[in-house]
Specification:
homodimer, alpha+beta, Dna Ligase, domain 1, 3-stranded mixed beta sheet, globular, DNA-binding
Chain lengths: 139, 139
DNA sequence: TACAAATTTATAATTATTACAAATATATAA
DNA sequence: TTATATATTTGTAATAATTATAAATTTGTA
């Protein structure tokens, strides 16, 4: 399904800016910040405003099209994948990785709260697989 | 154990400011922000600077005495309880609640990552028990 | 008591995000 | 097609949390 269709299905007017923001977000695995999205798109739309990025991201989160991520203190990051999964922020390479969960693990999380749950995040800070293996030098 | 002893055990010089910040943090269940701690303590130390709050909190997190919490977009919150547990931010009353975990649940979280884990957070946004029951009006 | 190191304080700077209002684009009805 | 109302985007200024910096103060030790 195209991102234009995705927007229409969520009753969001599919403007050029919104489509390109979603296109970018769905093409990367890096969980970019608002500023990273702006920097990536401004060559394509030189007139683009940062406000449009913020407006659009807030709208998309509100409507449940994407997820926001508070794994870093300062920046909010954004994730096109809204299925329940965890995130690892590697303290060596500073990248954010997806960690997928089994159904039973997702159920356990949903059962932690009695009332309605709107959003949950599992944010882990540690060493990613790649950096962990680099540390194991042969000798 | 007193908070002064706690500081000494972590090789942190127990200044008046540091002791009072820890005393406040250990006496509340509200997971306060830096600014809330400042507002609570400034009547006791009128000369107190916000920088001391930030310096101290960063030091305490770095040394593993307390935990920082990124459950809200803007503010960092702080938690005296460093045992593994989840947090619920109630979207009605806007309070942060502790959700304690069973050992098997903690193990599951630790096994999500191969490499070393420095910190993990489970942040849930939803309705707390109190607000959930208020919603169930008798009729 | 004197001196060096650590801590606190006060102010200015930084940075992510929001507020606001003007400009532009879009959709609808005549 | 044209007029008009509505929604969106843009640009600038404002806000707010946090950090940088350097002077002042406190603390520990010789």
């Amino acid at each position: 399904m195209s991102n234009k269709t995705l927007l229409i299905e969520h009753n969001i007017k599919p403007t050029i800016q919104r489509i390109l923001i979603l296109d970018y977000l769905s093409s990367v695995i890096s969980h970019p910040t608002a500023d990273e999205i702006y920097t990536a798109l401004v060559p394509k739309i030189p007139i683009l405003s940062r406000m449009t990025i913020y407006n659009t991201l807030n709208l998309l989160v509100e409507k449940g099209v994407i997820h926001s991520l508070n794994i870093e203190e300062k920046n909010t990051r954004y994730d096109f994948d809204i299925s329940p999964h965890a995130h690892l922020l590697c303290t060596k390479c500073h990248k954010v990785y997806d960690i997928f969960l089994k159904n039973e693990q997702i159920d356990f999380l949903k059962n932690l709260v009695e009332g309605e749950i709107f959003d949950f995040q599992i944010n882990i800070k540690g060493i990613c697989k790649k950096c962990n293996n680099l540390g194991k030098t042969s000798h």
